[in-house]
Amino acid sequence: MAVSFQLIKECKRTKARLGRLKTPHGVMETPVFMPVGTQATVKAMTPAELREMNAEIILSNTYHLYLRPGIDLIREAGGLHRFMNWDRPMLTDSGGFQVFSLGPLRKITEDGVTFKSHIDGSTHFMSPEVATEVQMGLGADIIMAFDECAPYPSTWEYTEAALERTTRWAARCQEAHKRDDQALFGIVQGGMYRDLRERSARELVALGFPGYAIGGLSVGEPKPLMYEVLDYTVPCLPADKPRYLMGVGSPDCLIEGVIRGVDMFDCVLPTRIARNGTAMTSRGKVVIKNADNTRDFRPLDEECSCYTCRNYTRAYIRHLFKAEEILGLRLMTIHNLHFLVTLMKNIRQAIAQDRLPEYRDEFFVKYGYE
Asked: Which residue of 24, 202, 204, 297 is most buried, as measured by CB atoms within 10 A?
């Protein structure tokens, strides 16, 4: 088996759990946050810097890599790990979310999706078979089934049709997948409807995937609604398989997701807000461009041990942003990713000590969440 999941401990007071996910490129401890390397790079970061902060796994995007530089070139390079010099586990998404986000630039049929490239307007076709073939060429340890992500809000009828197509496409992805050194995960859909979510989970579990993602959340719905969906969706998934909540990366959502039994998360949030000048810290967000940082010679976070906080002040980083120097973006990105990797480490420790509810409350008070 390409990927195996070992359940280490279940929290006595929540649905959180500790696990160990083994892949051909290494073992990771769960719960885990995956930095996003959309185009075969985590923006502003080198692989060495990611390894130094102990990022255990990263995510890359099939849609973007399919368009540029193209699967043939990456295959010729020896796969995505070798192409980008990353020797730890990797997950690729199927490209489904990006394709369906194109709106009027795409047309859905039972066969697949015809879409126009956001780069040059050229026409392309993505099917379950094509998405799987591309991901086999990329060579990630974990790949995702091609699904239809219904937008929020959507009617029950539209969401049901998308769910049914997702299940049929998942079976086609299984049929197309031929690499023994990869694990193909299914994606639960069903929007914000309990009956559809439970049905989607049942149908995918019946197909027998080595892991299951929960898609179609963090797409604009209120956070309490997302938590409600997780409350009734996660229990439908096998306890001995990893559970992956797609597109979630704010500290509160990571903690709440873990409490509900989720093992894996990814999001562009920490790197995107870093490039816009916002740092996540133990005392809440710091907007570095604000004038009150002009003569602030403290680190971004006095409780942080990242390279940025060990070596640079808020005043200096603000100067870099005001001067539009690239180093500012890099230092902020290093900090935000280190912050979330460390958050997940602290969450794992809290689970091991059966004190996750207390950790959650303490973190929320310090961060400034209500």
From this structure: 204
Report the distance separating Cα 110 and Cα 130, nearest Å: 14
Burial pattern 23-46, b for ≥16 Cβ within 10 A else e, equals bbbeebbbbbbbbbbbebebbbbe
Query: For residues 347 and 32, is the Cβ–Cβ distance under 8 A?
Result: no
| pTM recorded for the entire structure | 0.97
> Which of 93, 141, 147, 301 is the catalytic position?
93
Q: Which residue has tokens 């929960």? A: 214
pLDDT tens for residues 176-235? 999 999 999 999 999 999 999 999 999 999 999 999 999 999 999 999 999 999 999 999
* Separation of alpha carbons 270 and 136, rounded Å: 28
- Active site (annotated) includes residue 252: no
**141, 147, 266, 301: which is the annotated catalytic residue?**
266
Decide if 354 is catalytic: no
Instruction: Give 36's DSSP letter.
Output: B
Instruction: Output the CA torsion sign for 148, 153, 154, 155.
Output: positive
For residue 356, report the phi and psi dihedrals to the nearest 5 degrees.
Answer: -65, -40
Give pLDDT tens digits for 134-166: 999 999 999 999 999 999 999 999 999 999 999
Burial of 79 (0-12, 13-18, 19+ CB in 10 A): middle
Calculate the CA 300 to chain-centre distance.
Answer: 25
